[in-house]
């Protein structure tokens, strides 16, 4: 038995145990960033222990176990108590219980939850702090004490009522540490705090868990970088997209003009949806997607006036942005001629930029008839001329990414993406608007970009996203 | 470096031959290449090249480029030869004006080299206007001659503009270099096979002294090494002629052997300006092309993802095994009690103290002779004793918020085999005035429906009366 306790001691393990339906799986789901864990109101959803290792390049740093809840705790304790042994032998009795009842279906759940503990896992005992304390829990806590493994208790809050104090009084009798953790409202900082507490359970776990914390930070950074990359590609590809439609008559019909516009819009919508899906995958919210399939910002279409009013710039903001960006270009000309232009370049640039912004407020992109002299006539639409569109698209992408990044993996209800009218103020200040406009102008021009330009834009997006997610 | 790695990478990114794990494993094995993205990509291409369909698109494309360039090189060489022969054509009556040859061997190369330098500086721009002047530009136009499927693939490739520009710049230098070689060869051949009287003539008022100075300057690269390849002032004076004068005057005829000395100057001019400088341009273009290939590798769609997969550690927090889908039986339980009777043969509470059972009984105006706490902290012996004492109809209170465990089911099974009827009554918390939420009762109903015992009933109607009674009980 002693040899078994030494097996697999290469990395820390933690078994999340407790009464049925007290949020064990939710906690594991949140700590493991895994939304595939089955969570339901029905007790007994988890029937087998499940391992959630944190691994880097295949090397496991620590392992979490989701376990079924205690079903026949009284019977187990009664069996254990039949053996009158000193404290240093109690864990051997627990092992003997497992060995004796391995094939006994009645104790399937208890064996599933006790096995990882007897293999050296630290205990994370989960209770629901929103329900009153009951003495019957002491049976479970007593069994865990018999295992002799380091343990801590987590008070979960499934509902709003609060019985934490009475729980704390009881739990402190049995556990080295008692912490409160709400998997539904957890953020990155709370997550790391729990890991730090877990590290305190055993001295030799401090170092691997410190590495894990560092790694989680790196992981968060990776997710942020990938999201910024995808958002950048979305804006660039959408704004610079060009669609063509051949026609074989003398003049293009209205239907053909409508068709190309509709194809163009659909293409941009698809790009947005596919980016959203990828971003959800990056943040390990793959299962969010299935429930959210037809939910696009409360069915607020990418091209609707409503979405423009929430995410886009106002005519005034757009005008200022146009004037500023035009003036900057003009000032470049002034600089080139060492001011001999009497700063006219800046003034003209501002006027041109501002006028363009004012008149380019509503239209998307002109449908052009091309190839008249070549014999093959076709309609062409794009790149996007609407100066507001990149801000609308970007705003929606930022909002979606922020929501996804901030959503706990323990949540199973339909993704809540309610509109926040003040969102624009949160991310788009004058400085970032000016910086963004420089790139949007390039994207609109349809000319090839330097790889460094997209990288710079990506860095800008990452900075804004980080600010939004951390806020 | 040639274009093959670029085309191979394009094709490999399209077929995506390796998983994220394999790419990361590759990154870990190539530690020496860390922070060298281009080298990493080249090594990755080498590793996966075999998985591409044969013949490789890169091979097809390179061989196409090679063939077209070779054809153009031959044409350029032939044109060079012809141009040389044309410029040096001498019918014995009129001397060969060296000005033409100087223009073709010195000034046109210098001018085109300047244009090339300009094109090199502007190679990043999508539309290289000057590049369009190059004969190699028209190579693209000959794309149509390729087989249909290859043509499609190459079109889909959409070569990076920077790379496309450098391909054209480099190949133009090769073509022009061969033109110059043709010119040089023709000069040597004509000089060997013919006796040519060279002269110079111009409408401009240029004195032989000025012309000598000019040629002396032009000859600076070789004048110290081969002085005989620099025309002397005397030769220049002797070989000047005017259209309206006698084309071959007496003096010219008297110095016929000297007039041929021009060929050395012309040969060295061609060798230095048209061949040597052009070779330098070709070397420069090759460097530029090589650097463009490397840069373009990084701009291909999918490269960023690939490099990320190679360099970023794979951090995984997911479960190794998939969870068996849990199917919830949301069946409604058939044995529901909406109102409780006035008396029962026994009232029991699962993990509910006896004192609380009295309160609950009183508040609900239910009379019972026996009140027992079972489960919870009670021992199995105590539970067995309660079951032994039980008979008739029993009311069993349970904490609605605590989901039914198998321990409870075991007890219920035993109890129901002993009594006529068991009514399970889920109650809420005191804070909630003992009122159970419908969700909590649903959980109990689901569990009891799995249990399926005809003696067991569930109380599930509104518990308002109960909560009112409980308030009275508490007061």
Secondary-structure blueprint:
The complex is a heterodimer of chains A (471) and B (475).
Chain A: H1 2-6, E1 13-18, H2 24-31, E2 50-56, E3 59-66, H3 73-81, H4 90-101, H5 108-118, E4 122-128, H6 137-147, E5 151-156, H7 164-171, E6 177-180, H8 188-199, H9 203-240, E7 243-247, H10 254-282, H11 286-291, H12 305-311, H13 315-336, H14 344-359, E8 367-370, E9 377-381, H15 389-406, H16 423-427, H17 430-445, H18 451-470
Parallel strand pairs in A: 1-3, 1-4, 4-5, 5-6
Antiparallel strand pairs in A: 2-3, 7-9, 8-9
Helix pairs in contact in A: 3-6, 4-5, 8-9, 9-10, 9-15, 9-17, 9-18, 10-15, 12-15, 13-14, 13-17, 15-18, 17-18
Chain B: H1 4-15, H2 20-29, H3 37-48, H4 57-87, E1 96-97, H5 98-121, H6 148-157, H7 161-193, E2 198-199, H8 208-218, H9 233-239, H10 250-254, H11 256-259, H12 262-299, H13 303-311, E3 315-316, E4 336-337, E5 346-350, H14 354-363, E6 371-374, H15 380-389, E7 393-399, H16 406-418, E8 421-427, H17 438-451, E9 456-459, H18 464-474
Parallel strand pairs in B: 1-2, 4-9, 5-6, 5-7, 7-8, 8-9
Helix pairs in contact in B: 1-3, 1-4, 1-12, 2-13, 4-7, 5-7, 5-12, 7-12, 14-18
Strand order of the largest sheet of chain A: 2-3-1-4-5-6
Percent of residues in helices of chain B comes to 55-70%
Largest interface: A-B, 58 and 51 residues
Structural class designation of chain B: alpha/beta
Instruction: Spell the H/E element sequence of chain A.
Output: HEHEEHHHEHEHEHHEHHHHHEEHHHH
In total, how many beta strands of chain A?
9
* Total individual domains of chain A: 2
Alpha-carbon Rg of chain B, integer: 50 Å
Low-confidence runs of chain A (pLDDT<50, min 5 residues)? 1-8, 290-295, 335-339
Report how far the terminal alpha carbons of chain B are from each other.
93 Å
Biggest beta-sheet profile of chain B: 6 strands, parallel
- By oligomeric state, this entry counts as heterodimer
Number of helices of chain B: 18
> Main sheet of chain A, how many strands, which sense, barrel?
6 strands, mixed
Please state how the strands of the largest beta sheet of chain B are arranged side by side.
Answer: 4-9-8-7-5-6
Shape of chain A: elongated
- Classify the helix fraction of chain A into a percent range: 40-55%
